[in-house]
User: Fold this.
Amino acid sequence: MSKILLPVVALLILAGCGHPISKELAVLGFQVETGEKSCTLTGKGGKFTFRPGSRAADFNGTLVHLTSEAFLDGSGRYAMVELDIRKVLLPLMERETHPVKTVLLDPGHGGRDFGTVGKVRREKDLNLELAKTVKRALEKRGFTALLTREDDRYLTLEERAAESARRGADLFISIHHNASASGNAGTRGVETYALTPAGAVSTADKPDPAANLSERPGNRFDAAGLCLAYLIQTGMRKAADSPDRGVRFARFRVLTLAECPAVLVEAGFVSNAEEEMAAGTEARQKAVAEAIAEAVKKINLKK
Assistant:
């Protein structure tokens, strides 16, 4: 549990003194502000706003997806499931850090795997260009930056993830560009994925009461991975000047198998003609790369 408990508040809540948030949230000691349909918790990490009936939350202006919908409890108080308190709220509020010397960058796709193909550009090429730009930005800040591939070659997902252990990486960042699953050419924006915590459904999945969530693993790097994803998403959405699609959870193979905190970056939609062209420009690649490198620098800082 958090170190910022307020025993007096906890006693009042347990005594039933009508607090607007659940006792599980109240004992954490955050300042509370409630609106007509939302609740904002303020702590040393910043402001976290959530809404009953939604998995979309806001942390310091960046969209962060919960693993389950927030809700009103039986007494009409704002509440979140215990897993979201432990695995989303507290790591962000308490600012999880991780020592970093070596970062492994993984340009997605390659070789016979083109990834998304736009009107002009292929995703595999954009991924490699951006990864090399991120590498330079990290090296400028004193980090050792490595690539899973330095040219147009095919690697399996297992081979990519295995490199994190073989090369002693402290962080693993897989770099991709997106495509609209619905075929909507107007879809744009950036998003960053962290590994879904054990026992939770991923952002793209609908809750299934019949599912055995104990069979859905996370790993010991959950908190650091989420915080890195948040830092990258916050910087990247500003650098790319693109809609914020948020921090999301997924069990992508490279995230599940990586032997260090790992995230997957979607730096824009190749299926959107305007964003496809923007993603290939030197200016945007450099801006996004600087944002990613700054996120690594921030997560490396001590609390």
